[in-house]
Structure formats: C-alpha cells, structure tokens
Amino acid sequence: MILKKVIITVGLLSLMIHFTPALAQEIECDERYQQALIQYNFGLADSALSVLEPCLLNQRIHKELTKGGSVNIYRLAALSSIMIGNPEDAEKYIRELLKYQPDYAENWREGDLMEFRYMIEGVSPQPSLRLGFRTGVYIPVLKLRKNYTDPEKPGAQFSLDGRIGGQLVGLGELAISKNMTLEAGLGVLQVFFDYQVQGSGFENYQYEQTITYLEIPILVKYYVPLNSVLRPYLQTGLSGKFSLYLRENSEEFGKYWLTESSDEDYILATFITDLENLGIAVGAGITYDLKNFSMRLDVRYDHHPYSKGKLAKFDEIHGYEDIPSSEPFGYTNDINLITLSDLQISFGLAYNLKYKVF
Question: DSSP code of 140?
C-alpha cells in the first residue's frame, strides 16, 4: 500500500515538472514582450531577442496567446533581427507574423523599418483552409437517346426539355501549393425537366419530373497568380451524384423512375444511359478575398460519360412488343433512355480558418 502511494506521488511530481516550465512560458510571453520592447527601444536588439527566445517558434505556446500577442512578438523579433544584420531570421519571423495578421501591409505601425516593410510586401500570405458554402442554379443538359411507345405513335414528335433547378453545397478548400487548392463538397441539387409527346391523331401530353440528388464534388483549382484581391481560377475534378428520388429496379435493365403524365393517365419509365453516379467536372470562376472571408462566382460543367453497356441492354428491343412481360415496367405507356449532364452557376462564401505563407 505504501509502495503504491509512493509510485503515484512520484508520477504526479513528474507530470508537474514536465508541464510547469511550458505553462510558465505561456504566462510570461506577454511580460517578456514588454521587457524586450524596452530593450529594443534602448538599442539593445540582441538583448531583446534573448528575452523573446522562449516565445519564438513554439507553436504550442502561441496557441495560448491572442493573435495580437503573437503578431507583437514576431514583429519585434523581425525588427531586432534586421537591426543586428540578420535578414534570414527576420524573414522567418515575418512569415510567422503574417500567419496571424495576413493584412499587415495595410496596417503599418509607427517604427516599422523600411527593410521590414519591403520584406512584408515580398511575402504572399494566402488562406490555407477555408470552410463555406455555395448556392445557385442547376441547368440540366439532357438528351433523349431512345424512345419506345405502346401503342406505337407513327409520326409523333418527342421532346425532352430541362428546366432550371437549384443547389446548396457545403465546401472545404485546402491549399496544396501557392496557386493550387483541393476542394471537396457535399450538397443537394434538384433537376427539373419536361417530356412532351405530340403527333397527328394522338392527344398531346406532357410529363413533368423532379429528381433530387446528393452531390459530392472533388475539385482541383488553379488560381491565376495575380497580386490582387480578385483572383480568377480554373478547376477540374470529379463529381459524384446519388439519387435521393425513389427508384424502381429491373434486374435486367437497371434502375429507372416512373412518372405519370399531367394531362392523361399515361405512365413514363425513364432509364439513364450514362454513368449517372460519376461525372467529369471542368469550369472556372473568380474569388474576391477579404481578411477573414472570401466570395466567389463559380461556373462548372459536369459531363457524365455515355455508357454503351447500359444502352446495349436495349439493343435487342426494336419495339415495345419486344419487352418481356416479366419486366416490372412492362405496363407503362412510354419508355425513355436519356443522358443527363449539367451546367452549374453558383455564388459562394467561405471563411478563412488558417493562412499559409508562400
């Protein structure tokens, strides 16, 4: 029992010895800055650096300080390094300073040396992590690949027209180099379209359809290197889409949805014949950077590659009578085979969580 108490006591003392110096440094950094500032103002730059040394480049300590406190410490260290003729260390401290105050060049202080200002202007702080959202319009790009009707409608005209839908996507953007970022998102978008049948001797009728998708875009962005708050970019990547609309399933022909006509009691079965769940995204946009936020206007086209394999399942079907009666969609009046790509135009807003200096 006594041995157990001794072991616990020794362990607690070890922990106290391990953490106490670091805790003391965190508490002392603001005081050290005031002492170092007095030394610097008396022309003792070497002494100022010695006083600040425990508080420099220790990221754990700076997590406990305010951003303003970290800026003060790195500014004074950079000025002191310039005064003793050590520009390499000065640039190192300036890079750390700009992580905490990226817009320092717009807020010069009295006493900032010209060399210090030149160094600040020569470094490019950029957001390294952003979180935000985008919202806008979704324009479907549709094509009617094939159509079957029962009864047959000789001379009939079939048209498929997309209508503008909406989207809301949450996003995160991570810098992977000075001009390139990786963006991933998760959101919801809606597709609206009309399918019309018109023909001599047949009453015209129209189907109206709404499909809701869950979208997961993963994009690589290249920002054009401009020294401006307005930065255009190009983007490419992959876009995953997963239907939230209830789908029927044919064991032979795949998934489809059923839509009743708004004019008559006709039923339409629609099969998508491209790679619905995976698209290739290309686009461009422009970002307007503020201190803590960035706004963007984004235009993107998602192309879903055409799947010959899906359409091949219907190759043996030349008319409605060739569809096996065992198929669950066999009672429908019309069958559509379509492709579905899209154009997205959106406005986004993102919060800059972290900065990186390049």
Answer: E
Closest CA to 296 of 355, 349, 222: 349
What confidence score (pLDDT) does residue 201 get?
A: 59
The reported pLDDT for the residue numbered 330 is 84
How far is CA 35 from each of CA 40, 41, 42, 183, 326, rounded to the nearest angstrom?
A: 9, 10, 11, 45, 88
| Tokens at 229, concatenated | 């708050």
Q: Which residues pair with 291 in a beta bridge?
A: none
Question: What is the b/e burial string over 54-93, where b = at least 16 CB atoms within 10 angstroms of the residue's CB?
Answer: bbbeeeebbeebeeebbbbbbbbbbbbbbbeebeebbbbb
Residue type, position 307, single letter: S
Q: Which segments in the chain show pLDDT lower than 50?
A: 1-26
Residue 324's contacts (CB-CB under 8 Å, 6 or more residues apart) are 252, 330
**DSSP 3-state assignment of 248?**
strand
Task: Please list, in sequence order, all residues whose beta carbon lies within 8 angstroms of the beta carbon of residue 208, skipping any fewer than 6 positions away.
Answer: 192, 193, 194, 259, 262
> Tokens standing for 173?
């953007």
Instruction: Give pTM, 2 decimals.
Output: 0.72
DSSP 270-315: EEE-B-TTEEEEEEEEEEEE-SSEEEEEEEEEEE--B-HHHHHTTT
Model confidence over 294-350: pLDDT tens digits?
999 999 999 998 888 888 888 888 888 888 888 888 888 888 899 999 999 999 999
Q: What domains are defined for the chain? A: 2-123 (no CATH), 127-357 (2.40.160.20)
Token couple for 7: 């072991």
pLDDT digits (tens, 9 = 90+) for 70-89: 999 999 999 999 999 999 99
In the DSSP assignment, the letter for residue 106 is G
